[in-house]
Amino acid sequence: MRFLLFVLLFLSFAYSLGLVLANNTEVGVNLLFSQAPTMNLGLLLILCLILGIVIGMLLALLLFRVLQNKWEISRLQKANTNLQEQLTQANVVIDRQATAPSVEEAVYGSTATNVHDNHAAQEEEATLTKQKRD
Fold first, then answer.
1. What is the pLDDT of residues 15-37, one digit of tens each?
2. DSSP character for 100?
3. Sign of the C-alpha dihedral, residues 109, 111, 115, 116?
């Protein structure tokens, strides 16, 4: 990888040197609001090329960040939808379990809970009367 990077750097330097040597005409640069001093055309081309590369890389990074954020948002929305469905299914199961009869009711019918409730009430009364005697 470093070798490839070194080769690309060497080729870009050689291209820049060739561009400067091939275009050695002095030109004036008009920047609309000001006038830059005359400079070598090859150097001007290299500066414009470098400036274009830098601006292009910054815009690409910005665009990539925006796309990455959009991908993340869509992934999180899908996960949120999935979790909402799981929550709805869990609520349905909880509602079914809440309305389902207990084991005693299923085996003995509804009278078993009444008997159990009456037995619990009698034990409570016995405890209260015992506390009154003490």
1. 888 888 888 888 888 878 888 88
2. S
3. positive
Predicted confidence (pLDDT) per residue in 72-118, tens digit: 999 999 999 999 999 999 999 998 888 887 777 777 776 545 555 55
Q: What is the largest CA-CA distance in the chain?
A: 120
Instruction: Name the residue among 49, 55, 47 with its Cα closest to residue 29.
Output: 47
Strands (E), the chain: 26-30, 35-40
Cβ–Cβ < 8 Å for 121, 114: no
Give the separation between CA 69 and CA 95, rounded to whole angstroms.
Answer: 38
- % helix / strand / coil in the chain, to the nearest 5? 80, 10, 10
